[in-house]
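Next comes the chain:
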Amino acid sequence: MSGAAMAGGEPVLSVRGLVKHFAVKRGVIISRAVGQVRAVDDVSFDIARGETLALVGESGCGKSTTGRLILKLIEPTGGSVRFKGQEIAGLSHDAMRQMRRHLQIIFQDPYASLNPRMTVGAILAEPMQVHEIGTAPEREERVRELLEVVGLSPEHARRYPHQFSGGQRQRIGIARALAVNPDLIVCDEPVSALDVSIQAQVVNLLQNLQKRFGLSYLFIAHDLAVVKHISDRVAVMYLGKLVETADKRTLYAAPLHPYTQALLSAIPRPDPGAQRQRIILAGDVPSAMNPPPGCRFHTRCPHKQPRCQQEEPLLREAAPGHRVACHFFETLPRPADVAIRPADLAGKFALRLSAFESAVSNRGASA
């Protein structure tokens, strides 16, 4: 069951069979295609209004590519992307430009995503100018409001990006995404480039903004502790395919796919005396240019069987809202100490969670 179905309404975003293959070419004078990198291969999910879907997996699994395909920053090879019921995969450049008022992105690197030659005020006003929102005085007032919303001072509008810390820059990136009142924001690892002490400030800011404006998030990340804190549902991706999707409580308490179990076993726990079994996967991630036949995870799976090497598993429903792409998930042994309880992650965030309130009350404080 999709998040939209559980929420009882039409999804804000509906992705079906999304595919992206990048051609690999060789030759200087006469280049020819010698293969394809199958970055995203048949990915489907829904996001409901006000919901956060986290997309997790190892580096190179296709998470960020999926986010960019949804925004049509990259042209898809195939599949369907529908926003509020409207197909956007085939929209023209001008039509997509208008659509982007409702679809925004927060980039991973807060240092590279802001134009160093523009003031913060100009950076925040530019999206409104592009979409012809308001007059110049109205945009100036909106810039002040946006800075206050993300915990910065209106006086910061006159500064340049190099005059801010990483956490403050990411707040500016969030304010820019909010400038045109979007419905859906793709958060492409928005805290991975920040210090650990700053991550909770940004995560809590995103949650407060979601409640205030009814935003939907596609939250791309690899830090499963952060994902547990912010997400409603989680989709686990491996080598371009989804291998497990569930609401966060179910996934963290009872992971069914061997890859998900291995990811959760890697989360550090705050109790140094706690004994646990770390699941170490054999080998390296196969090349997306030449993925293995059958189940793409079988080259590293500790429970592989002959069928796994021959037949690709479907994403099957294990329980309402819980889907797994594994032939044998019903009979696989489940490590007793892999399940993650809320208390296991509380310690990691205990020193961070009050940071947002202090940052908002002291808007000029360094992040």
